[in-house]
Amino acid sequence: MKQLLFCLTLFASAAAFANPTVVEYPREGMTVKLLSTDKIQMAEEEVNIKLPPIGRIYYCCTLPAQYDCRFTFKNLGPEKVSAKIGFPLVEDRFYQKKFVESLYKFSVSRNGVPFELEYHEGDEDGVYSNIFSWDMEFEPNETAVVDLSYQMPGLFLKCPLGVSAYNWNSSYGREYLNALNQSMSYMFFYITETGKGWSGDIEKATFTVDVSEFEKSISECGDIFVKRYTDIYRGMEMDETKEDDDEYIDEDSNEDAKYNEKRDFEKAVKNGQMIVNVSPGEWDTIDDGGVKKLRFTASPFNPGGVIEVGYYFTIIPKTADTLDIVMRYALEWYKGSWQYMRDFHDNVGTIPEYCHKAALQNTADVILEFYGIESGNEDIKDFLKEQVWYPVKEPREIDPQLKEALLKYSAFKKQASDGQIGI
Fold this sequence. Notes:
Layout lengths: L1 E7 L11 E5 L8 E3 L4 E11 L10 E15 L5 E8 L8 H8 L2 E4 L2 E2 L3 E5 L6 E10 L4 E18 L17 H4 E10 L12 E7 L1 H10 L1 H11 L22 H15 L1 E8 L4 E5 L2 E8 L7 E12 L5 H22 L8 H18 L10 H4 L15 H11 L13
Parallel strand pairs: 1-6, 4-13
Antiparallel strand pairs: 1-2, 2-3, 4-5, 5-11, 6-10, 7-8, 7-11, 9-10, 11-12, 12-17, 13-16, 14-17, 15-16
Helix pairs in contact: 4-5, 5-6, 6-7, 7-9
């Protein structure tokens, strides 16, 4: 009987998940080493994820999502195979077994019979941690089905929609566009790279995400979510001892200007667009008995990369009501970067009026592009191609008054040369 050691891996950096691969234990007491095999094929995988409702945020993590997976394996040879299957949970914050067991509630079974699990702190190369493993046997040419269940929190964080924060060497060179490049996001991941360790192709893979409870909670959370979003977005301090519906702490909250600025920004948040990005591949929206789900199926499936389910909350306006606030916020970025230049270059004066107009035009044109209205603006081309929402496959419905206001801004003509600082 041949001895093989496999690893069914869940790879998570605070909230990521992955496909099976192969491992060995070099010597007693040492950690596992990842390998590959030509003896066992992972023929099919089915991953079902149920996103949690929005709740309190713990160290940038959401409430845990529920993961229920089924993997179908085939012994490709005429000999019986004994295997040790491993399932890592890469989670930097928790390395003690009791935390891992209570947080993730990991279980694995075959034909309804649970396996006895072992726990290991990590792999030999330091890539994976918190590894659960179990012993398993495959009869000659046998097809075996393994069911797994676990929980994992997602991430809640300030996140760019494409290009990260502006730097002076960036290709698009329009720092004020960072106002439209930011978001607060809820993100959940499934990493498929380690599925390459098995023999042959994954004949079929199905990924299904139940988003119904999560999206319902978004519509119901109202001002509580907006306050949390605004305070983190603006870099203000939060008092974690207070309840969700209490005010957060802002050291300068007694200053009228700061108070009004915050309230204006809250208005922009409430009127901002939510962007849903599920990638890679073409995902279908299905109605499963009144439950909204997203589904992706591939036959065969080529593992590699990351499946991402992301909800991005932006200040891209839904109506014209907050467009002036968005424009002012864009100019805040502009003035800040201009002041940075003045601090280091004596010959940099105040921002010329035509630069203000160019900034407003480009900001308006990005918003028009979001709604699927082509602006033909070459200044924003490099910025657009980095955004998760671009290219727009189907034009979004736009409020007529918002469209009219954006077109007025868009009418500004560029009045500076290409080499002008700040354009």
